[in-house]
Amino acid sequence: MSEVLMDIQDLAKHFVIDTNFFGKPVSVLKAVDGVSFSINQGEAFGLVGESGCGKTTLGKILVNLYRPTSGKLFFEGKDLTVLNEEQRRAYCKDIQMIFQDPYASLNPKMTVGDIIAEPILINGLLPRNQVEERVIYLLNCVGLARHQRNRYPHEFSGGQRQRVGIARALAVEPKIIVCDEPVSALDVSIQAQVLNLLGDLKEEFGLTYLFIAHGLNVVKHISDRVGVMYLGKLVEVAPKKELYANPLHPYTQALLSAIPVINPEKKMERIILEGDVPSPINPPAGCRFCSRCFKKLEQCKLNEPKLKEVSPGHFVACHLFD
Amino acid sequence: MLLEVKNLTTEFKLKRGIVKAVDDISFTIDKGEILAIVGESGSGKSVTSLSIMGLLQKPGKVTGGQIFYKSQDLSTLSKKELQKLRGNQISMIFQEPMTSLNPVWRIKDQIMESIMLHMKLSKKDALARTIEILETVGIPSAAQRANDYPHQMSGGMRQRVMTAMALACNPELLIADEPTTALDVTIQAQILELLYRMREKFHMAVMLITHDLGVVSEAADRVIVMYCGKIMEEADVRTLFNNPMHPYTIGLLKSIPQIDNDSDERLYMIKGMVPNPLNMPKGCPFSDRCEQSMERCTQEMPQLQDIDGHKVRCFLHDAKEGGSAKQ
To answer: What sign does the dihedral A44-A49-A55-A56 (CA atoms) show?
Structure first.
């Protein structure tokens, strides 16, 4: 594929939960713990995993809502983690985010037009008298009418609010958009509308997406490549068709088999995982999935498997493939 | 027949007008049957379950119809008699495990409350039963976890506690309102498996309310599709998925990205959105979004037709007009 837009190397974000008397951390939540992958120009990279696996934290690091604890984040070949706050902010324009909850991510006291205009004004992209025209253009792009710019978020339905969130992200002409569960709060019939819109905008503006979701069917629809996360680690990365046809990691296999299929004739052979995701505070040693894995080996409890390429473009972190 | 709902209508009296959240619906559930009710938000599926349980909050009110449980009209029962049924023979799993558990009570006390009330067990026996049921729903080291408060548990655990509470008195009818919506897919698979096991073991009937057609296809025997408070289609699960008749059902099925589909085509979209309940279109409530809408659809309400056990509310399948059953 084409050139790498964003390269993530061993990125980690640890939250200190508790410190001892001397201020030394005694309990650390490792939300993202050494994740590496790259996103190519013009592709949609899907990131799936269950709640608490660190996918949202990762997205927030990319848009500079969190500073990573360690690791590197290259954007167009430039390491963003070494920049100071002011220099880093210059790149925020290029990396935008669409949030999960359209009810919580729009300011209820601002009109939709002001919400969309705000990033344009802050970044000084256009003179004030041209902003309105641009807002109307953006509203049209996301399928809203021009007169709706004077309305407030509560006057919109969930799907429409998500469109406003998309227009706001588009306002600064970003190169990559981090979509954090953009459709999971929406009704089924509205989900399709928003997914199609995201697909159209990608074509139209040549966008790159990091698409974060827990719905594997949604990720499959929109992504070119998919990464699977478990407890702060990336366990498998592969092109979409390869991953869904030939999942290698036991966790990916279980995740795929757990999705209910809309076909009453076809009862899937289910892999039912035992137990819950362990707490990311002091996670198990060795492979993080070993407490729930149905194929675990002796060494899984001792050594942590590394992500390695087992076939072209297909990476997996599992001792079964050593 | 375990439960029979006849012409149930539930209204919410608001300042701006009356909202018919549930509009003249009738259905039955047999012993040991899993009936799924699907619909989008605002379709009235949760209000239906609350109406059956007698848990409607003001300004909601059942304004018409009857609900029979084992041929007994629930509306004729006193509060006390209803209390005896609720939590004992009919129980409910609520949608939000985070908000439906009491945060200042230990898990075991919350579950023991209904056991002691309905099964008349001593405290000791009730605790034993509590631990047994927590084990059944798959909570590891149940005896210790029973002492936890809800905030000490994960979302999946809490949902299992809710399920345990609902199953504690071996109900004959379980109303499960989006029991897996807040959960991850691997936990969802565990909970669905559990409901299945309970059905096999105790011959329990389940009214499963969900918006996830995947869950419906896996779990249900029969399906009701609701839209704007009305039943649009009802059929057994195979018939509904293989031969959906209502344009709304067909649209819903087509608009979901399927995991076993490799094409990258655009998704089918149902245009527009659910109408405002205070400003319903005249005629069929789906007429303003329907691709096959006819003149007549905007004028009069189609009736629910029974075509060999497959019920559908649409003029396209109107037997009297000689309309053909379209694929």
So the answer is: positive
